[in-house]
Structure formats: C-alpha cells, structure tokens
Amino acid sequence: MAGKDSGYLDMQLLRFTTAGSVDDGKSTLIGRLLYDSKAIFEDQMEAIERASVGKGEEEVNLALLTDGLRAEREQGITIDVAYRYFATPKRKFIIADTPGHIQYTRNMVTGASTANVAVILIDARNGVIEQTRRHSYIANLLQIPHIIVCVNKMDLVDYDQKAFESIKKDFTDNITKKLGLEDARFVPISAKNGDNVVDPSKNMDWYKGDTFLHLMETIEIKHDENLDDARFPVQYVIRPMRDEYHDFRGYAGKIASGIFKKGDKVKVLPSGIDSKIKNIFEYNEELSQAFPPQSVTIELEDDIDISRGDMITDQENMPRVGQEINLMVCWFNERKLVPRGKYAIKHTTNEVRAIVNSVNYKMDVNSLEQDDSDLTVGLNDIANITIKTAKPLFYDSYNKNRITGSLIFIDEATNETVAAGMII
After folding, report:
1. Do residues 290 and 255 touch, judged by C-beta distance below 8 A?
2. Phi, psi dihedrals of residue 256, rounded to the nearest 5°
3. What domains, with CATH codes, occur in the chain?
4. Cα–Cα distance between 194 and 154 in angstroms, integer?
C-alpha cells in the first residue's frame, strides 16, 4: 500500500480549466469524464440517477456531478468556480469548471490563472461564437500553454465530419492565427453519449486523433514551468526560539520559478546584497535543490536583514525593478476603475499602494482589436493601463513568468479584489 501511495504522490499533476458558452456541455463533459474513467463512486452515481428522475429527465444527467450546489441545480444554472479532483493511472487532475455567461469572465480569469490546459467547448450546431473568442482571448492573455477545443454535441449534427472540419478551420483562421496560439488541438465529441471523451467513438470513424482523456493524459507539460529565472518571494522569516536553533534564520516561501541549489550565489532584493545558499529545507528534510511549485525554507550563509515581500533571485538573471508598470487588467467589480484612483496592490508576497496613471486602451474581445474610443473600465472589461507604485516592485513580464508577472488590485475602502493584472 505504501508503494501505491508514493506512486500516486509522484504522479504528475495537470490543472485544466473548462470554458464555453451557456449550455455548451461543460458540466456534462466533466461528468462523462469522471464517470467513464471510473473516477466516481457507485453511491454518487445512484444519487445522480435519483436526482435526474426527480427532475423528470429521461436520462441520467451527468452535469449534476459538477453542479455541486443544490440551489444551482434547482435553478438550472452553474455559478462561480467549482474545483474537482480526480486521477487516472497516468495522471492527477484538478479541474476548474467556470461558467460560460459573459458576466462571469472574472471567474474564468480566477479559475484559469494556474492552468496548464484550457478546454474550450463549442456547440457543433452553433460554431465559433462571441463567447468562443472571449474565452480564447482570456486563455491566451493568461498564457495557458495548451488549448484543447472540444466540438461538442456532434450527435446533434449526425456526427458530420464537414461540420467539425468547418469549425476547426474557422477557429484556426480567426483565432489561432490572430492570437498566435502555439498549441491548439481539436476533438469532435458527444459528452452526453461519451463519444471520444474517454473511449473512441464508433460513430466518428473518420476521426483518427486521440480521445479527450488520452490527450489530457499525454499532453507534455513538464516544460511549462519557468526553470530559467530563479525567483523566491519571501513569505515568512523563521527564527525558532529554541536553544538548539539559536542562530538559525530561514526564509520560507513558495518558489515562483527557476531552480535553487545548495551553494548557489544569490541576490536579495531590494537591498541588492549578495550571498550564497547554505541549506534548503522542505519540512524537516534537507534538499540539495528545489524548483517550482515547491514550498521550502532557504538558509543563507550571511546574516542579512530580510523580511516578507523581499525576493531572493539569481545574481545574473535579475527581475526588472520599477515603479511605473504597464499591464493588462481584467476588471472584476461593479464599481468602475477610477482614473488617478489609488488601490492596494498584492504582488507575490509584497503589498504596496499604487495610483492608476492612465488607461491606454480596452480590448474589443469580439473583434480581438484594441479600442481607445471609450476608456471607462467596468465589470469584465479587459484594458491596458499604466500604474505607479509607492515603492519599487521586482517583476517579470507575465509571458515570461506567470507568478512574478501578475498582481491583484484591492479597493482599500471595501477590501474587495477588484481586478487581476498581467504585466506586459
């Protein structure tokens, strides 16, 4: 049993987000995936069968597997981000299931920010629509490395190859090329009937590619992490108050990127002082090296004044340091962005106040063009802005580093998170 457990712990974890318009079948796809890959228990299935009968449905509604809240089920809508965990013999998965309504763009940004793969559903009857472009743009903005386009409800177009090929061409010509997506793959499926979800479809023998699950199990993600730029935001300074560790001073946090090794020469920001790594600990275990997304404690050879919000980095390959920062923001709040307004900013483990210097343009997500005719930024808008922070931040561009390149805005009056930002 111990061997089995350690095998599970060592399995690679893939995070994916699902996006699509309302009723494109996201919940049914995840339900089918869990059911056909034997990732749910018999009693769960029985409960869903009972719920389906209670709603007067002729067939088992697999969408009920992910629509966890009873109120949602009764209203027939899915709200907010639901996280699901499951595993196959090849990989562990975390699913962020985000609703498709236009007003829930903020949920997609939240659910997708750490994803390796974005799964975009398209209804085979409707083809590429405004929501498809919106979701694809957000997936690209968030630098999700891999996109799988599931053309769903193929059973409702008689499993027609031409319908699938037409949608694939439209997406490729008008989204993949326009946004410069590097890895977009297409699978024709019927989530309701299970075609090409876990098992190959007998109804679409013209499709020679992988099933959805096989793609998810085999897509290459080990190069998705940035292992070049060593970035360690300090979250907590550890000073044990026990005699045996009298002189110990460790810096705890989560590695944002890069590989840290014992003996490495490092620089501490903002002081700019150089030192060397004396030890790396994970819980009580000493490590010779550590990499993202490990949470570790680093001990340095020199006694340096370091506090939360400081950063330990490579001496050669440094982040940018600055106060005037240009970024894309996705606005989350009903209260509009206030030009010249002051906001609290959280960036890695750092907190700082900032002022919005300018709104430069908004993105028209339908045409994928920049629009500078209307610069008011409200709920679900995506805009390019410039801010000035009260003290310097140590940052990278978001396309280089999704952790040191992202930040959130907090309204100081209400303490609400009002926006997420991606540094350009």
Report:
1. yes
2. -80, -40
3. 2-218 (3.40.50.300), 231-314 (2.40.30.10), 320-423 (2.40.30.10)
4. 11
User: In 3D, which of 103, 79, 109, 104 has the Cα closest to residue 330?
Assistant: 109
Predicted confidence at residue 104, as pLDDT, reads 60
Contact 214, 222 (CB under 8 A): no
Whether the pLDDT of residue 80 is over 80: the answer is no
Q: Report the residue count for the chain.
A: 424
The answer on pLDDT for 79 being more than 50 is: no
- In the chain, the amino acid numbered 404 is T
Burial letters 368-379, b for 16+ CB under 10 A, else e: beeeeeebebee
Q: Distance between CA 351 and CA 316 in Å, rounded? A: 26
Residue 35 is predicted with a pLDDT of 78
User: How far is C-alpha 284 from the chain's CA centre?
Assistant: 30
Task: State how far the Cα of 166 lies from the Cα of 164, in Å rounded to an integer.
Answer: 5
Collapsing DSSP states into helix, strand and coil, what is residue 91? coil
CA dihedral 45, 49, 54, 57 (to 10 degrees): 130
Would you say 131 and 20 are in contact if contact means Cβ atoms under 8 Å apart?
A: yes
Please identify which residue in the block is written with the tokens 């030009």: 339
**Are the beta carbons of 111 and 80 closer than 8 angstroms?**
no
**Cβ distance 379 to 331 under 8 Å?**
yes
- Max mean pLDDT among 71-85, 109-123, 170-184 falls in 170-184
pLDDT above 60 for 30: yes
Residues 418/343, Cβ–Cβ less than 8 Å? yes
